[in-house]
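Below: protein 1.
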Amino acid sequence: MIDFKDISYLKTGNPKQQAAFHILNQHKVSENLADFDPILVGTIPININIENSDLDILCYWKNKSEFMEKIKDLFQNESNFAIREDLINEQESVIANFFIDAFEIEIFGQNTPTELQNGYRHMVIEDQILRTKGENFRLEIIKLKEKRIKTEPAFGLLLGLTGNVYEELLDFKI
């Protein structure tokens, strides 16, 4: 399994992964977020990205105000910067969006260790499913995503999940 906490795996990936590695390194994004245990998640790390896939970075904050201030200090001058607070799955969350070059970046922070956040857990399970189901399954996921179906619902469709796919994926056994 890939060590998703170390983005060096992107260096030898597909062109989008290589470009993501370059942007994240050039702008020292992971390094600047190191205090918050950042992990890149989503479609790019597991090679199911489409043209407009963004870079989703999970973070673990212990002090929400300090986290928000750090995010503002680091990224407020980037294109289309916006930051907001939200309640997601009954947890206080901070979401920042902005662009660096051609990449949209979303930083998602909660007071939950990054490896326990649903975004990371979903990605790890989806990676295992992709490795088990093979290339045709991966291509079918990409086709669904190109039809604007979000990642977890796309997996749910192909796996025949019938309830809340976000919850069912967390319990999915290969």
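Below: protein 2.
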Amino acid sequence: MLQRAILIIAIFLAILVALTFGDALLSQAYVWVSRVTGWVVHNFADVFAGIQYYLSTHTTKVLLAIALTIPVSWWVFRSREKELKNPANHRKIAIVLAICLGWLGAHRFYLGQIGIGIVFLVIFWFFPPLAIVLGLIDAVRYFFMTDEQFAIVKT
């Protein structure tokens, strides 16, 4: 159930990013990257302020992304039910989550490693660049693992 919820969130974020690309791509990307990497973000309050600002300025895009997330998620779950249960796909999803949301520990929560996911959140609270680097390191580790090695890490 948690894996499905995280997959829905990832689909929502992917759609939201796709909708945002047409709107001042370079300036928004620079602002986002600077906030995520800790140049501007010093704690969760700044992240929440950034999210609140984004929601207030792009309400239509967020609502459209939510509206598109529901049918896309339903289609993915219906058409790819057997493939989503394949361990190799769990590794691919964990890699994407580690790249996109690794700084929040989303990949660890997806793999059922709640404690380590909370550690990622604590690290992000005190030193955001370290959380980003650790998320990217996990993505690289998962990428170079075999399915058997990943099954061991997942447990």
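DSSP finds ten helices and no strands in the chain.
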